[in-house]
Amino acid sequence: MSGTVVAAANGAEPLLEVRNLRKSFSRASGPLSVAESHAGGLAAAVDGVSFTLARGETLGIVGESGCGKTTLARLLLRLIEPDSGEMRFRGQDWLGARGAELRTLRRRIQMVFQDSAASLDPRMRVGTIVGEPLAIHEPRLPRAGRLARAGAMLEAAGLGHEALFRYPHEFSGGQRQRIGIARALILHPELVVADEPVSALDVSVGAQILELLDRLRREFSLSLLLISHSLPVVAQLATRVAVMQRGRFVEMGAAEQVLQSPQHTYTRELLAAVPRIPAGDFSP
Ligand SMILES: Nc1ncnc2c1ncn2[C@@H]1O[C@H](COP(=O)(O)OP(=O)(O)O)[C@@H](O)[C@H]1O
Ligand SMILES: [Mg+2]
């Protein structure tokens, strides 16, 4: 795992480069506690975030609720546009991408959500749900081919082929998250942004989902951005950890270093807030 960090340090082109990303919302629709930006009436949800992500790497982003994690995730996927900043994906200007280039790049970045139950259409069979990105991006692929690929991806995510013909409500929370992951991976993206992927799950089920994400990262040569309010969760997978507070990265470094010798007061507070960490959880 540390090899990817070395590769980045050696100057190999990163998969994703983010520089000075900013996004503000009008205060009217957000809480007043958020740091005010220079422009009156606006609150910065993401306030000058910069980082790079190497191929195959897992970067953890941790910070308490409301610090801007989901806004950052949505910016990275271009679900919302930043006020300013730069993003390069595979060396290409990701913010400037339009038309066919945008569509090509878009399928290479996929998101896994916290609440997969809410993001899965209850009236659709699992095979249709998992195959839907294929129906959009590869419309000429016949239905049988689509279902075959959906079935294979469900198996990779630890569910059987028979899941294809069932409905989301027939599955547990952990299984529904596997369905969400299969859907996110069906187009073979290069980057997966997982926003609180285990927050809605029991600790033991969540640990299995994290293991699955790590296995799929290796199997499909993915880069992973793992976003969580929980330091133990990001510590379980991340090579590097960024600590986010009020829209900014206040500390970023090798996971071991951030966890063993945190430099920033806020990181120490986050560590102190973790009730009990079983020995070994922070080891690489
Ligand atoms: N669409 C929006 N409109 C107004 N304010 C928003 C919007 N989305 C997020 N915010 C505000 O931005 C801040 C960061 O939110 P969010 O990115 O969801 O944080 P996190 O995911 O870390 O909990 C919060 O104060 C939130 O209320
Ligand atoms: Mg969030």
Overall description:
The protein has 284 residues and is an alpha/beta fold. The protein has a domain of 121 residues: Rossmann fold (3-Layer(aba) Sandwich), CATH 3.40.50. 37% of the residues lie in helices and 23% in strands. It has 11 helices and 10 strands. Strands 6-7-8-3-9-10 form a 6-stranded mixed beta sheet, with helices on both faces. Strands 2-1-4-5 form a 4-stranded antiparallel beta sheet. A hairpin with a 2-residue loop joins strand 9 and strand 10. The chain is globular, with a radius of gyration of 19 Å. The N and C termini lie close together (8 Å). Magnesium ion binds next to helix 2. Adenosine-5'-diphosphate binds next to helix 2.
Any idea of the CATH class of the domain at 55-79 and 98-108 and 189-273?
Alpha Beta
Total number of beta strands:
10
Give the class from helix and strand content and strand pairing: alpha/beta
Strand content: 15-25%
Helical content band: 25-40%
Task: Please name the defining characteristics of this protein.
6-stranded mixed sheet, binds adenosine-5'-diphosphate, single chain, 23% strand, 4-stranded antiparallel sheet, alpha/beta, 10 strands
